[in-house]
Amino acid sequence: MAIDSAILGFSIGDALGVPVEFKTRKYLKEHPVSDMLSFQTNNQPKGSWSDDTSMTLATMDSIIKCQNIDINDMADRFLEWWKKDAYTATGKCFGMGDGTKKALAYWQLNKTQPSGSKNITNNGNGSLMRMVPIAYYLSKRSINEKVKIEIIKRVSSITHAHDISVLGCIIYCKYIDYIIAGIEKNRAYDLVKNDILNLDLSNCFPYYQNEYDRLLNQDIKNLIENNINSSGYVVDTLEAVFWTFLKTNNYQEAVLKAVNLGGDTDTIGALVGALAGIMYGLDDIPLKWLKDLKKENYIKKLCYQFNQIV
């Protein structure tokens, strides 16, 4: 399966969430997002995407140019985004989290990996949000699970090296792998839970698996909306993503439900958008949103080049 529907779905989810980032759920109940909006929170024109898509495109471009996963090259491309506004929707870098900024500043100065902090406070969404190309790349490689996990850990650790963030990236990548394979979404969720709970993570993730207890030991979609948080904490985000995706049945419904949770709307919208893009296909994405998306042709070109490599 080509990556196009995932990345375009991701970018549109991001762009839908950008104008209302940090808005409360209460506000969005009264003023729900139903279409692409302009300006508001981030003061960006309609169809603009944020750091989520920028870092995802930089990750893709690194794989295209290196024809493999090279974390040093990825880190350099993230610097190009931060310092030179590469991979941006409007020629302006915006939306970077503190953990990502500190990690990239460290990389620029020291050129050593991992550059991401292992501090427990560094568990935002800065690595989870750029995992879609990694999941696609690994899905096409005949390598064992331990090697895949190590690759995901090293890629995450460019900006987020704490076990909670790394484990979140592993869960999301595994789920994408099953969705790409055409497995029904609830069945894929059960398989991921089984996989993670049966992995020997004791040396790498001593007790942080407990952070994902609701996601791994319960059925997240059975929780009511009031029990789903949509903050920038990676565990909250992953719960919101699975909850939204499992409770909806088409692309438009999925991304709008994700964005209208409030909080970290661009990231949750993007991550749900990628899953919905894979599951329901490019034809299910509203054409008007594709037309509104900034640099649609540039994104499609990168997708084409990525597909040729993968």
Q: What is shown here, in short?
A:
It contains 15 helices and no strands. It is an all-alpha fold and 310 residues long.
What characteristics describe this protein?
310 residues, mainly alpha, ADP-ribosylglycohydrolase fold, 15 helices, 57% helix
CATH homologous superfamily label? ADP-ribosylation/Crystallin J1
Write the CATH fold name: ADP-ribosylglycohydrolase fold
List segments where confidence is low: pLDDT < 50 over at least 5 consecutive residues. Answer: none
Report the sheet-strand fraction: under 5%
- Intertermini distance: 10 Å
Helix content bin:
55-70%
Structural class: mainly alpha
Label the overall shape.
Answer: globular
Count of spatially separate domains: 1
Count of alpha and pi helical runs: 15
What is the strand tally? 0
Compute the average pLDDT. Answer: 95
H and E order: HHHHHHHHHHHHHHH
Word description of this protein:
- 57% of the residues lie in helices and 0% in strands.
- With 310 residues, it is an all-alpha fold.
- It is globular, with a radius of gyration of 18 Å.
- Helix 1 (4-17) runs antiparallel to helix 13, helix 4 (71-84) crosses helix 5 and helix 7 crosses helix 8.
- It has a single domain (4-309), classed as ADP-ribosylation/Crystallin J1 (ADP-ribosylglycohydrolase fold), CATH 1.10.4080.10.
- The chain contains 15 helices and no strands.
